[in-house]
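Lab notebook page, bench 4
Experiment: in silico fold of construct C2
Operator: M.H.
Input chain length: 116 residues
Purpose: comparison with the prior construct
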Amino acid sequence: MARLDEALTLLAFGLKPDARLQSYSVANLQEVIKQYLYRVQSKACKVESEAPPMPSTGPLEDRQLPLIKTEEIEETFNSLRYRRLCLRKLVLEGGWEWSEVERENPENSEGDKSQD
């Protein structure tokens, strides 16, 4: 879920306006994630820690998608600090590390049981 939310945020706010992914589906997915976080983590997200690092824009740059300035992307992710803290907490409680969210090819991770 955290990986999906990070990707949606980059596609909806990290690209130049004429290239942004804007649809009711994106807005609905983001709202569903927001409501889920509210229901399962409303009290537990009062975490006194740093938000996870901003996701890499490398995959978007590799595909030559028109990005806005890095500072603007950082502002967007900073404005979502509480939401991202809650997602990070869920990831950690699930026994994962945030680096799994950031990994570009999760199916190739060392912990992938399907490769055994």
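Observations: The longest helix spans residues 24-41. The chain has one domain: 2-104.
Next step: discuss at group meeting.
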